[in-house]
Each structure stands twice: as structure tokens, then as C-alpha cells.
């Protein structure tokens, strides 16, 4: 049997029109998000009915409904890119966490839905943290560590706590104040808060340089 015959036989065995794995993934995620965005309970039965994908196909991709909902909630999110140097690390981090104004409005409604869901389900909260959020922190935490190694930032910094403080300034606008990052006044408030946090992170030498720059 020739290699050409083997290829032909393999093609003949494929079911025509069979959806690719990524197509099924997209359909399952889309069906999950429709329920989330509508504020409705998400169940495997509803996802199967909405997506046309079998229950077994759902569980082959996600080990639990909680893992699937966490993946759906993270759909469209990206790991931030931080390009820092000795003089622009703070600005690079600000750019990474604030994002462009035009990207905020469609994201914010789902963000609020995500907060509602994870706060009412601790298991989902933990899954979302470990599978998604913890990974998005990595570039900014690495940038902070590089700043420490260069001597720009204090050597005794708790990097995770620094990230929490920076991110907390943004979460407070969404969760407590009900503001939008598409509004310049909100962005200015976040920037002012992070400026204060950043001064506390600077090494003694860099703090002196920053003070001279402000008053010089």
C-alpha cells in the first residue's frame, strides 16, 4: 500500500463536516457566556442545549462546571505585556493595568458579572484565581522583581503585596465606587493612588531622585 493510499484512506475515514476541537470550544464558551451575561443559572444541561455539543464533549474539555465557568469568565482576557526600563517601569505597569480607554466599556459589564458570580461561589473564586488570575499577575510581578534587582525598588518588598495594592486601586473603582475606567476622572484617580503606592516601593536613592525631580 502506498503512502498516497494511506492518506486517502485516512481522509475517507473522517466524518465530513465534523467540527474541529476549537470550534466546539468556542461554541461551549459562547453558550456559557450567554447564560452568564443574561444573569441566569449556568448548568451543563443548558450549555448542552444551547451549544448543540454533547455532555461528554463538555467534560472532555473541562473537568467540572466550575472550571468551565471560570474559563468562560476569562474569555477575551489577555496576559498584560510590561516593557519596562530604568525610567519607565511605573508607566509601563500603569499602561498594562489600565489598558486603552476604548477597551473598557465592553469589558466592564462582564467584569461586574464575574465579581457577582465569584463572590457567591467560593469554589469558582478559587478556580478562577488559580487557573487564570494568578497567571495574569506574572508579567507585572516579574517587572517589579527586575526593579528590585536593579536597585530602583526596595529590596524588602513583598512583590505579591505590591501587586495587590496596585490592583486594589482599580478594583475599588469598579466594586465600591461603581465607576468606569473609560472615564478620565477615574483613570486619574487610579493613577494618583498608584503614584502614592509607587513612592513607598522606591528604594531610598530613587525616592531622593524622585523628590528632587518634583521640586527641581
Automatic annotation (TrEMBL):
Residues 1-23 are annotated as: Disordered. Residues 40-72 form the HTH tetR-type domain. Residues 107-191 form the Tetracyclin repressor-like C-terminal domain. InterPro entries: Homeodomain-like_sf, HTH-type_TetR-like_transc_reg, HTH_TetR, Tet_transcr_reg_TetR-rel_C_sf, TetR_C. Keywords: DNA-binding, Transcription, Transcription regulation. Pfam families: TetR_C_11, TetR_N. The keyword ATP-binding does not apply. One of its GO terms (molecular function) is DNA-binding transcription factor activity. This is TetR family transcriptional regulator. It comes from Brevibacterium celere. The lineage of its organism: Bacteria, Bacillati, Actinomycetota, Actinomycetes, Micrococcales.
Amino acid at each position: 500500500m502506498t503512502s498516497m493510499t494511506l492518506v486517502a484512506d485516512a481522509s475517507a475515514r473522517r466524518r465530513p463536516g465534523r467540527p474541529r476541537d476549537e470550534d466546539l470550544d468556542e461554541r461551549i464558551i459562547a453558550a456559557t457566556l450567554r447564560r452568564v451575561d443574561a444573569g441566569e443559572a449556568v448548568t451543563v444541561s443548558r450549555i448542552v442545549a444551547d451549544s448543540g455539543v454533547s455532555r461528554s464533549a463538555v467534560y472532555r474539555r473541562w473537568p467540572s462546571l466550575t472550571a468551565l465557568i471560570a474559563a468562560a469568565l476569562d474569555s477575551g482576557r489577555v496576559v498584560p505585556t510590561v516593557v519596562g526600563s530604568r525610567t519607565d517601569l511605573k508607566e509601563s505597569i500603569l499602561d498594562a493595568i489600565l489598558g486603552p480607554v476604548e477597551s473598557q466599556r465592553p469589558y466592564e459589564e462582564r467584569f461586574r458579572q464575574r465579581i457577582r458570580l465569584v463572590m457567591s461561589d467560593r469554589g469558582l473564586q478559587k478556580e478562577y484565581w488559580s487557573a487564570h488570575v494568578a497567571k495574569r499577575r506574572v508579567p507585572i510581578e516579574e517587572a517589579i522583581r527586575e526593579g528590585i534587582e536593579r536597585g530602583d525598588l526596595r529590596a524588602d518588598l513583598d512583590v505579591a503585596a505590591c501587586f495587590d495594592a496596585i490592583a486594589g486601586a482599580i478594583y475599588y473603582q469598579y466594586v465600591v465606587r461603581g465607576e468606569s475606567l473609560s472615564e478620565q476622572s477615574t483613570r486619574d484617580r487610579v493613577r494618583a493612588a498608584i503614584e502614592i503606592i509607587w513612592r513607598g516601593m522606591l528604594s531610598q536613592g530613587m525616592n531622593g531622585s524622585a523628590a528632587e525631580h518634583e521640586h527641581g
